[in-house]
Amino acid sequence: MQRKMLVAAITATLALPLFAAPALAQDQEGAAANAEQLEAVTVTGSLIKRSQVETASPVITITNEEITKKGFGSVSDVLRALPQANGGVQGAQTSASFTQGAETLSLFGLDPGFTLYLIDGRPMADYPLLYNGSGNFVDISSIPMAMVERIDILPGNQSAIYGSDAIAGVVNIVLKQKMDGYALNLRVGGYSEGGGDSQRLQFTGGNSWDRFNLIYSLELRNQEPIYRFQRSWMDSTLDNPSGRGQGSFNYLVRDLLGEVADDFVDPGAWCDRVSSAYGGTVRRFEDNLGRGYACGSPLTSGYSSIMNDRRSANGYVKGVFDINDSTQAYGSLMYNVNTVEYFAGASYSWWGSGAGAGPFYDPTVGSIISLQHVFDSSQTGIFGLNNSFDRNKTYVGQLGLRGTFGDSNWDYDVYYHRSDNVVRSKQLRPLGALVDRYFLGDPVAGATDPFFNEYPVYNVNWDRFYSVITPDQYRSFSDYIRGESHTYTQKVNATVTNLSLFELPAGPVGFAALVEAGNQLWDDSPDPRMVAGEVWGASATQGYGKRDRYAIAAEMNAPLTSMLTATGSARYDQYKASGRSDEKFTYKLGLEFRPADSLLLRGTYATAFRAPDMAGLYQGESGFFAPGQTDYYRCREEFGDDVDFDTCRYNNQQIVGVQSGNLDLKNVNAKSATIGVVWAPTSDLAFKADLYEIKIDDQVQARSLDEILQLEADCRRGSTVGGSPVDINSPNCVAVLGLVDRNLNPTGPSVVAIDQVRTYPINVSKEKVRGITANMQYRLQTDSIGDFIFGADYNTLLKHEYITYPGDPTIDELTFLSYPRDPKWRASASVTWNVGGFSTTVYGQRRGKTLAFNEVDTIGPWTTYNASVSYTVDDLTLSLISNNVTNKRPPKDRSNTTYPYYDSFNYDAYGRSIFAEINYRFGGSGG
């Protein structure tokens, strides 16, 4: 991409007007007289208003009209349909994830936290809960549609204007600024396969007086859930494409001393006592792997939600007051209350003896055993009782003063902005001590197993274990677990702009500068019992932190010739917290070359950063389970340094991990470049395409547990596997040994076993993406059959590489064998036909092939279609909308034998939806 040459060229052209201005200022009138004067407007990605729609930076814009015609009902729907949003993310379909009640997106397959979200150019507060339990991000599910004028997406590094987080790009949700009259909109509908019924009511209005303009809205929304059991192709584990589906292990007893590891104890007639569970489908069955028999139902996994139950109310008001001809005062407030309810499923609704009592001896069985009991979450059991509830309250407000300094060309804008987000969560969960006692009773005093004289003895209450737990019984050993989490970001900003700082022969030089100061807070306060480990089978993240930030920035726009314009911006950010300071200087350079009115050649080079996120700095100790770990110390201690770790019996251990924040984290740093072309041969036809590259260094990863355990073994044994000496008293060893807690009791079978391993985030990873994004728009106007509007968008990744730790091989993410497996390319296209008051649109999305579960075959592509038809008479518009018209299911992967048998990060299982919408406009000066 010749980035060094591009940087040099742009730098030289930016420097030119600073030296040439005095000599050239007088030779300006001829060129200016012939230039068509268009009104300058605010452009996403710039502090300077521009008269050109297309600039050096590629911007993807989706208007309110397009949103409606393409069938989208929410901001989340719009953004996740973007071809540029090709990365798989967690959300409502990813059961038991940390943020099942929130939605986000991944631009170009990059981390969701690398996208900056704005409302009218002002930042949104992070969602208080952590994405995947480790990182801050923004929830886009609760942004109201009522006031959206358009959505701008600006790919690539944008920190030189907006500061931290703008690595993958910026999403700016631009709201309506003025309205005359009122509008009432009602949208109702649901899904043809059941579930998901929704109703949305919007009221918007605006009034103007002599010196005061007011605009306001109210949006109410109700969304019913969709459960997996409502989709026939994944309502049961018998849908397993291998044909070897079996029931879930709802009632399971493992014999830990069996001839085969973890032999099942045959329940026999006990299964008859629980056959009524899950609608009478529980039966005794034999495990496919030959481990024995258990009681279970194939319908168990179907009881989990894939669309959240959601009820929301949103209000918005904005007022602008003309103090005089050159000064305006303005203010706005958006307030949202959003209640989300969802059920994670059997993976979050069960009890096992391992978490509390551990392995134990039962005299009835006569062996050391462990138990598993999956609660009946269907209508015959505790359906809905242990759902998760998240109540989210957010507001975004600002107060400002803007105007012009006297008769000069200098404009100013001074404002205070605050975005605040609070989540209160609630769920009825079993308490460890109570649920253990319910099934096991108390351990037999003074008794241990007859084999090792180590394990406790319990007399299992088999009548309770083999029973269908009722709601009252579930409540008897459970309690509501409540948490509250809070974030905010606030700042004071002062910006000055001058659209004509001085004149060049080709036109005026624009300039802008800003200074801002603010702070942000993150407070994640779960129920103390979650942190203390008193809630069975559950852990929580926690933490608190606050930091101040300051920034200055400047931008210049210089028309070097009638064909060539150079742009440049630079910004300095400083973050202060906990006695530490982080600084970052970023810049962006751009060139616009217009050899003809119809052609634009453009390029940019930029740097960006992400300040250490609040969770990375301030996360308190939070537990997790880490399977598949190797205990290198025990392997080497028992079998010597030449041990084969692959066959060592300690090579597949599940250990308890504890993660906390790291105040020594540094910024994540990035560079990006774009080069592109825009061609509009007529006013009805336009093409644009841009090549982009984003390179990221110092990405944050938790320190590897495997690396910690290897180093711990070296320190304890005094040498590496290869024989190099290691000093146990060295600072590195002292630090590592403090991360690993072991049971050093010299007696019993659990000698020197790992109790837990601590880890923390570090700046270590690198990532690079390169791709092409393209767009086409064409309008065909006819005299007799109306107008046709064609549009197409395309994004493809040419490269996506990742290096997790220094020295690791480079991972090709386009072929990497792990979930989610993102498509290399995505495309969309639409055609709209307008004739008289009639309008219809067909919109299609296509995702490219992805790697199959067996890591050999491919699946897809996957294509879905939306369609809408509307008719307008006077002030009334009636619409009928269908999304996924053909009821296309996710692509079938016959090698995927893991429920629900499709990639829920990249595909949705909702199916066809049908909505009716009515919009009525009334009042106003013309009404």
Output the keywords.
disordered N terminus; five-stranded mixed beta sheet; mainly beta; Maltoporin, Chain A; 12% helix; 22-stranded antiparallel barrel; 43 strands; 927 residues
Structural class: mainly beta
Note the main sheet. 22 strands, antiparallel, barrel
- Report helical residue fraction: 10-25%
Categorize the overall geometry. globular
Architecture of the largest domain, CATH level 2?
Answer: Beta Barrel
The CATH topology of the largest domain is Maltoporin, Chain A
Mean pLDDT: 90
Report the span from N to C terminus.
56 Å
CATH homologous superfamily (4th level) name of the largest domain = TonB-dependent receptor, beta-barrel domain
| Count of spatially separate domains | 3
Q: What's the level 1 CATH class of the largest domain?
A: Mainly Beta
| Radius of gyration of CA atoms, rounded to a whole number | 31 Å
The strand count comes to 43
Strand content: over 45%
How many separate helices? 15
**Unreliable stretches:** 1-37, 746-750
Structure description:
With 927 residues, the chain is mostly beta strands. It folds into 3 domains: 619 residues, Beta Barrel (Maltoporin, Chain A); 144 residues, no CATH class; 94 residues, no CATH class. The protein is built from 15 helices and 43 strands. It has a 22-stranded antiparallel beta barrel. β15 and β16 form a beta hairpin. α13 runs parallel beside α14. The longest helix has 22 residues. The N terminus is likely disordered. Keywords: Cell outer membrane, Membrane, Receptor, Signal, TonB box, Transmembrane, Transmembrane beta strand, Transport. Belongs to the TonB-dependent receptor family. It is a multi-pass membrane protein.
